[in-house]
């Protein structure tokens, strides 16, 4: 495997509110995270500070104290207030912003709004998140549309992605979907360049920015895609079930999946009224943004990124492997090669994760791109460099155990086949 050059490992990053080791140790107490476990998988589900969970509980208290008043009077105003606070942080306008439960729902909402039919094509890459790939498989089955996957693989230089995507766009392309920061590879894609080429070809672009809010400086309007989806419960650390969908004024109109009383009253009104649902997570997003800024904002992101890269470089060196891409392609989440190839099966992922969790009390992610399995680590404000010490040998041990299990399963299957 080609080992991408990486910054040398070193001391934990310091010098900012989010980066200093003491600040980071203090930050652990802001969370409900169990002690004794190394939490190196923030990218998957986030982790919510106690203060935001408490605020969510307060919103729920108000909801149940007087449901009629809450849903009829308080919630509509509170949602717009939240949108006004969240939009500038994301680089867009409040009236373009709708709250959805998660990124998957955001993508589904856009897809449902397109009148797809037989012969239509949707262009995606092989870095696309598996759940969204399944959603597209369902849409293809239901409409007769075709999914065109651009093979990029990993290691990858993301600068090569725009040309590869452009080459896949044709007269039947109805939509391009690109991840801003891909889950499986952790690579950041040059989304503004991809948006420019899609505009030049007159093809709508949906950016799946599930990871982006709070992970990088985001300016949705400057990217100039038609549709942008981002999670609030990952790097912004909001409670689960809060995400945003931003739609450009020039894009084909989008309606929520659950159309309710506000149908026909405009984008914001329709998204604010999607049946009776618990919107308490979204209502905490203004506080989540304030907390992100109080923890350092840009400095926090830089410190997290430096920690993730230093830890990943150290881990790769211990395993004799390399990173999934050039370091500049990564934010606070990095992919690392494994010491030997493994079958990219559900069983392998379960065995690797269980080994790390049960034998080393470590939560990290294993992902697959184009059939190759990778380790993915994250760094958030509650992590210190010590969290990653010994990770390389622990993962190498998990890989050896998973390989042995896979070989035993293959031998058994071969024996059964022969018999
Ligand atoms: C790129 C990408 N898209 C979509 C999702 C789905 O997010 P959710 O489970 O919050 O819907 C994820 C989750 O990790 C992701 O990484």
- Overall radius of gyration: 22 Å
Order of helices and strands: HEHHHEHEHEHEHEHEEHHHHEHEEEH
User: Which percent band covers the strand fraction?
Assistant: 5-15%
Round the mean pLDDT to the nearest integer and report it: 93
Which ligands does the model contain, each kind named once?
A: pyridoxal-5'-phosphate
**Spans of 5+ residues with little confidence (pLDDT < 50)?**
1-19
Number of helices: 15
Give the count of structural domains: 2
- Give the CATH superfamily of the largest domain: Type I PLP-dependent aspartate aminotransferase-like (Major domain)
What summary fits the major beta sheet? 7 strands, mixed
CATH class of the largest domain: Alpha Beta
Q: Strands of the biggest beta sheet: in what spatial order?
A: 2-8-7-6-5-3-4
Examine the secondary-structure arrangement and name the CATH architecture of the largest domain: 3-Layer(aba) Sandwich
Q: Tell me the helix content.
A: 40-55%
Q: Could you tell me how far the N terminus lies from the C terminus, measured between alpha carbons in angstroms?
A: 37 Å
Q: Helices and strands: which structural class?
A: alpha/beta
E-strand count: 12
Reported by name, the CATH topology of the largest domain is Aspartate Aminotransferase, domain 2
Shape designation:
globular
Oligomer: single chain
Topology:
Elements (H helix, E strand, L loop, with lengths): L20 H8 L9 E2 L2 H4 L4 H16 L1 H24 L6 E4 L2 H11 L7 E5 L4 H14 L2 E5 L10 H8 L4 E7 L11 H11 L3 E5 L10 H4 L3 E5 L11 E5 L19 H6 L7 H4 L1 H10 L3 H22 L13 E5 L8 H15 L1 E2 L1 E5 L2 E7 L12 H28 L1
Parallel strand pairs: 1-10, 3-4, 3-5, 5-6, 6-7
Antiparallel strand pairs: 2-8, 7-8, 9-12, 11-12
Bound molecules: pyridoxal-5'-phosphate (PLP).
């Amino acid at each position: 495997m080609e080992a991408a050059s990486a910054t040398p490992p070193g001391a934990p990053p310091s010098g900012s509110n989010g980066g200093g080791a003491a600040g980071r140790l203090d930050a652990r107490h802001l969370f409900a995270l169990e002690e004794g476990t190394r939490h190196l998988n923030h990218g998957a589900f986030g982790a919510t500070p106690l203060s935001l969970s408490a605020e969510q509980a307060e919103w729920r208290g108000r909801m149940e104290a007087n449901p009629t008043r809450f849903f009829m009077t308080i919630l509509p105003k509170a949602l717009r207030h939240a949108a006004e606070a969240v939009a500038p942080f994301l680089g867009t306008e409040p009236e373009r912003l709708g709250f959805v439960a998660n990124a998957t729902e955001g993508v589904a909402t856009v897809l449902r709004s397109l009148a797809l039919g037989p012969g239509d094509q949707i262009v995606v890459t092989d870095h696309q998140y598996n759940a969204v790939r399944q959603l597209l498989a369902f849409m293809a089955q239901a409409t007769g549309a075709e999914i065109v996957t651009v093979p990029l693989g990993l290691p990858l230089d993301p600068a090569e992605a725009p040309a590869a995507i452009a080459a896949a766009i044709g007269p039947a392309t109805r939509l391009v979907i690109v991840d801003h920061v891909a889950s499986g590879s952790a690579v950041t894609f040059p989304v503004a360049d991809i948006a420019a080429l899609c505009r030049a070809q007159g093809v709508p672009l949906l950016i799946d920015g599930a990871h982006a809010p709070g992970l990088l400086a985001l300016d949705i309007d400057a990217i100039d895609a038609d549709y942008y989806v981002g999670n609030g419960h990952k790097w912004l650390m909001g409670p689960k079930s809060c995400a945003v969908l931003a739609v450009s004024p020039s894009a084909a109109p989008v309606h929520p999946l659950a159309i309710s009383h506000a149908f026909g009253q405009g984008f914001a009104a329709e998204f604010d009224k999607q049946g009776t649902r618990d919107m308490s997570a979204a209502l905490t997003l203004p506080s989540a943004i304030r907390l992100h800024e109080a923890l350092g904002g840009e400095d926090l992101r830089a410190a997290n990124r430096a920690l993730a890269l230093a830890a990943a470089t150290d881990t790769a060196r211990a395993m004799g492997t390399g990173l999934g891409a050039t370091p500049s392609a990564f934010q606070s989440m990095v992919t690392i090669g494994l010491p030997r190839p493994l079958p990219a099966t559900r069983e392998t992922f379960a065995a690797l994760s269980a080994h790390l969790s049960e034998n080393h009390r470590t939560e990290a992610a294993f992902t697959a791109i184009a059939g190759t399995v990778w380790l993915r680590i994250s760094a958030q404000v509650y992590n210190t460099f010590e969290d990653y010490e010994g990770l390389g040998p622990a993962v190498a041990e998990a890989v050896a155990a998973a390989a042995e299990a896979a070989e035993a399963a293959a031998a058994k299957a071969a024996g059964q086949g022969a018999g």
